[in-house]
């Protein structure tokens, strides 16, 4: 199949998922065309089956905001005709499904019928899409897609609750590449670089937005380190980072917390990690938790959104109500205090992660793609 993938080329979950999906599809022999405004973060190496087409948005004094949707839909039309693309897979309802629909209509006028699959990732529904300014466009884009998927049952339920959706929504969860994410036992983790031998290493990875409840991460760690020697690794960047650094100063734990900023070496950081913290207000899926679990790292998380579908309470980690810092810290200590208990949770985390291996999830997309193509035959 010749497939165009439209996504945000960022460090965020949806961009990573879309990129990894495209690369795995290419390895299975499909021809993949990434169409976006810059090269996706994880699209490091191109292959004969992987192509990248940049969407250029010309600047005109007439426009206060440059019309990306117009440029994207025009680029889609050109690439479909040039490469004989058979299917559009757009990630995010707006602006991508909206632009995809306009491209479909332009192509239809030229006698070309192309199906569009839209994948909902979360923010496009629960935050941006639910804004009154965008709600009609999001509803329209979802209903005009040929097929719609969501990354969790929780997100599907939220979409049906917030919008007047007439289309079916199929849940296809996010995935992990276990072959790539699982720590190689032949390569030792250099824990001594980050912590003393008797210290546990705890990690948080996110975009440091308010929804991630970064102060909760710091406070949970503060309670943990009062009981056992520990270090906290904060990976990522965003609006809450500076406040987090000040909070560490107030609590007197600056020497125990390391702020990395954005990193392309997540696997190396998780290799060192004993426990992952994700106390978010909500997560449509919880990809960061899954990446941790694939590296044998148990997870302490909230029970909001799609997290209970990924982090199994008492198995791969523990779930708590949003904001329950004390319980999260106590659950963390249950896992961390004894080596045998920690090892058991590490093994369980990997076992759960295996259910989300890309080799199990990718055939679901291939089946859906074929169904979409058959719709226009």
TrEMBL record:
Q: Please report the stretch or stretches of sequence annotated as the Glycosyltransferase subfamily 4-like N-terminal domain.
A: 11-179
* Record-annotated Glycosyl transferase family domain positions: 195-349
Name by which UniProt lists this protein:
N-acetyl-alpha-D-glucosaminyl L-malate synthase BshA
Q: Which InterPro entries match?
A: Glyco_trans_1, Glyco_trans_4-like_N, Glycosyltransferase_grp1, Thiol_BshA
Q: Which residues form a coiled coil?
A: none
- What GO MF terms are annotated? glycosyltransferase activity
Q: Which domain of life is it from?
A: Bacteria
Its BP terms in the Gene Ontology are: bacillithiol biosynthetic process
SUPFAM superfamilies referenced in this protein's UniProt entry, alphabetically: UDP-Glycosyltransferase/glycogen phosphorylase
Q: Which organism is it from?
A: Flavobacterium sandaracinum
Gene designation: bshA
């Amino acid at each position: 199949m010749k497939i165009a993938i439209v996504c945000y080329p960022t460090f965020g979950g949806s961009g990573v998922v879309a990129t990894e999906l495209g690369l795995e599809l290419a390895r299975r022999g499909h021809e993949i065309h990434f169409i976006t405004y810059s090269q996706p973060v994880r699209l490091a190496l191109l292959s004969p089956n992987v192509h990248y087409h940049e969407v250029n948005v010309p600047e005109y004094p007439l426009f206060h905001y440059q019309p990306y949707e117009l440029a994207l839909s025009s680029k889609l039309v050109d690439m479909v005709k040039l490469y004989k693309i058979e299917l559009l897979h757009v990630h995010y309802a707006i602006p991508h499904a909206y632009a995809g629909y306009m491209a479909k209509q332009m192509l239809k006028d030229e006698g070309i019928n192309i199906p569009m699959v839209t994948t909902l990732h979360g923010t496009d529904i629960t935050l941006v899409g639910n804004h009154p300014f965008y709600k009609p466009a999001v509803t329209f884009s979802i209903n005009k897609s040929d097929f719609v998927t969501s990354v969790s049952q929780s997100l599907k339920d939220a979409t049906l609750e917030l919008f007047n959706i007439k289309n079916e929504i199929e849940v296809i969860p996010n995935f992990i590449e276990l072959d790539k994410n699982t720590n190689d036992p032949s390569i030792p983790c250099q824990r001594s670089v980050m912590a003393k031998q008797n210290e546990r290493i705890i990690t948080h990875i996110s975009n440091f937005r308010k929804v991630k409840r970064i102060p909760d991460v710091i406070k949970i760690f503060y309670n943990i380190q009062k009981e056992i020697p520990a270090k906290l690794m904060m990976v990522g960047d965003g609006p809450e980072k500076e406040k987090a650094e000040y909070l560490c100063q107030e609590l007197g734990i600056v020497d125990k917390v390391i702020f990395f900023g954005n990193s392309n070496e997540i696997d190396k950081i998780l290799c060192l990690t004993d426990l992952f913290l994700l106390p978010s207000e909500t997560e449509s899926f919880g990809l960061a938790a899954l990446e941790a679990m694939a590296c044998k790292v148990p997870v302490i998380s909230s029970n909001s959104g799609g997290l209970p579908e990924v982090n199994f309470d008492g198995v791969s980690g523990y779930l708590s109500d949003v904001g329950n810092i004390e319980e999260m810290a106590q659950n963390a200590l249950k896992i961390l205090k004894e080596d045998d208990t920690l090892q058991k949770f590490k093994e369980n985390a990997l076992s759960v992660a295996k259910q989300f291996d890309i080799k199990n999830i990718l055939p679901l997309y291939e089946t859906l793609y074929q169904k979409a193509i058959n719709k226009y035959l």
